[in-house]
Amino acid sequence: MEVLNNRYIIEKQLGKGSFSTVYLVSDIFNDNKYALRMIKKSSFKRNIISLLYSEFSILNKLRIIGKDNEILNSIPIYHQIYESKYKNSIYIFVLMEYIPGITLEQLINSYIKNDKTFDINYSIELLKKLSKIIYFLHKNNIVHRDIKPENIMIDEKNNRIVLIDFGFACSVNIDDPDYCQYNQGSPLYIAPEYLIENNFLDIAKKENNLKILKKGDIWSLGITFFNIYTQKTPYPESIENILQLIQYLKNGNYPYIDENIDENIEKNIDENIEKNIDENIEKNIDENIEKNIENYSNNFLSQLINNMLSIEPIARPSAKKIIEEINTYKNKYNFPYMVL
Fold first, then answer.
1. What is the DSSP string of 201-259?
2. Of 46, 197, 205, 226, which sees the most CB atoms within 10 A?
3. Where in the sequence of the chain do the CATH 3.30.200.20 domains occur?
4. Residue 220 CB neighbours (<10 A)
């Protein structure tokens, strides 16, 4: 049994990256469980280490701003960050809330492996919950800049979704929004205005810088749901590095869900429901109505994803707009709210 810092008992390894390892630990004084991230200080450049302290600061800031707001259940708790010696080297230790469950990436992979598809209403409810988190961040002028399935935890035990890894998050100073404009995050999820040289600056000259920064998160969310909806990545497998991705985008190739949109679907649903009411058929939705509603749901989500992946950042819906559109969709035919 290994004890770290004379306090934390290592129970098991939760994950390992190139420069850090995360363990599930228990506190010998109170038996509370935590996730403890260990980073060898000599492995990092100074600016990377500063990101760790920035992440800690941003998460604490959110807890102060959002006091008593239930959305804080969807944002991880970082209890402490400190440096200490371990096996003759200096390490940075980050003591975090332990979140049981799996990542959205793991869930997507398990669905693909078992040839399953996501329930459409589950997907829409998941999008709404994530949009609420992002709306809270954006309302407080914080951009996450690394939204992807790997950074979304599904805690089924406590029925919650948690957005994790705020390492690239940026607290935007309204007086100096240029501070956050630089390319950060995972290449496959970064908005094109960041990847294509000078594109962000050109757009920012025409629009509000802060608004454009927030739309980068919306693009990443759109790519995430492209993965959920199609169960594949939006770019060809032949793309092996960021330079090839940039060239692909420069050539005018962008993610798009190509669905045959039936503009008469809502009309058909309404007519069939009205027919059933006229014939006094209560609580009975025939196969035709059910099929139309399923098509309507798929069309709704695919169109919303495509809007989130608009090339022009200003054309992408805000997180608040996404929530409003989903509420309108849910209320139209009393769709069930899936429990996540």
1. HHHHHHS-HHHHHHHHHHHHHHHHHHHHHHSS-SS-TT--SHHHHHHHHHTT-------
2. 226
3. 3-97
4. 24
Rounded to 5°, angle at Cα 122 from 119 and 124:
110
Percent of the chain, pLDDT > 90? 46
CA distance 268 to 286: 12
**Which residue's structure tokens are 């890894």?**
165
87 contacts: CB under 8 Å, gap ≥ 6: none
Note the pTM of the prediction, 2 decimals: 0.85
Q: Where in the chain is the domain with CATH 1.10.510.10?
A: 102-263+268-332
Token reading at 127: 């999008």
CATH class, domain 102-263+268-332, is: mainly alpha
Strand partners, 155: 160
Element (H, E) at 59: helix 46-65
Distance CA 105, CA 208 (A): 33
Burial category of 81 from C-beta neighbours within 10 Å (exposed 0-12, middle 13-18, buried 19 and up) = middle
> ∠ CA 121-102-323 to the nearest 5 degrees?
35
* DSSP code of residue 13: E
Residue 282 has pLDDT above 50, yes or no: no
Query: Could you give the 3-state DSSP secondary structure of residue 44?
Result: coil
Mean of the pLDDT values across residues 174-188? 65
The crossing angle, in degrees rounded to 10, of helices 287-308 and 319-332 is: 170
Q: What is the pLDDT of residues 81-120, one digit of tens each?
A: 999 988 888 899 999 999 999 999 999 999 999 999 999 9
Report how far residue 239's alpha carbon sits from residue 287's, in angstroms, rounded to the nearest whole number.
43
Architecture per CATH, 3-97: 2-Layer Sandwich (3.30)
161 and 114 in contact (C-beta within 8 Å)? no
- 8/257: higher pLDDT: 8
